[in-house]
Design a protein that fits this description.
Number of strands: 8
Structural class: alpha+beta
Shape: globular
Distance between the termini: 25 Å
Helix content: 25-40%
CATH architecture of the domain at 4-126: 3-Layer(aba) Sandwich
Strand content: 35-45%
Radius of gyration: 15 Å
């Protein structure tokens, strides 16, 4: 499976253990993790464990996560990827996060667009899904910019810190 993608400003490569320190700084920010189904990280070991978990899913061909690297600075500015790959039904669910200082600069849309193109062309998928907390306005704007279609709300679809939360589901089809 492809382990790197390139855009004009970004280099996406399969996440690796040496990314842990950079990703810890992103995932330890409560503003970044606010709408993720994890609490903000409090030590670097958590980032290492997350990378190991994601690597295991990638080896099983069930998911793949990329570190997002800004070409100009060569800094890791976030992560994105296919949270689940379902080749039987030709679909994937995507997810993404960016360091707060890079919000609002089009990086998320650029990275996600690259994932979507890769999914439709190289992986031969038909459908890409994104599940987003209804209050995550920035993420919703990214999906709308990329012409994802709002399909509805999954009521109390996720439990975070003992509380159930709704998720909005968006999708994009190869034919869209």
């Amino acid at each position: 499976m492809m382990t790197e993608l390139h855009t004009k400003r970004l280099y996406l490569r399969k996440m690796k253990a040496t990314d842990a320190s950079s990703l810890f700084h992103i995932w330890s920010d409560p503003d970044v993790t606010k709408f993720m189904n994890v609490s903000n990280f409090t030590n670097e070991r958590q980032a290492i464990e997350m990378i190991e978990l994601l690597d295991g899913l990638a080896r099983a061909n069930e998911a793949i996560r990329f570190s997002i690297i800004e070409v100009e600075s060569t800094k890791i500015i976030g992560s994105c990827g296919y949270n689940s790959l379902d080749f039987e039904h030709a679909k994937a669910e995507i997810g993404y996060d960016l360091a707060k200082v890079f919000w609002g600069k089009g990086y998320a849309a650029e990275a996600i667009n690259s994932l979507v193109e890769h999914a439709f062309t190289t992986l031969a998928l038909n459908r890409i899904e994104a599940k987003v907390h209804p209050e995550n306005v920035n993420s919703i704007k990214v999906l709308q910019k990329l012409n994802f279609i709002f399909e509805g709300t999954l009521r109390q679809a996720e439990r975070v810190n003992g509380q159930f939360h709704d998720l909005n589901i968006y999708s994009k089809l190869r034919t869209d």
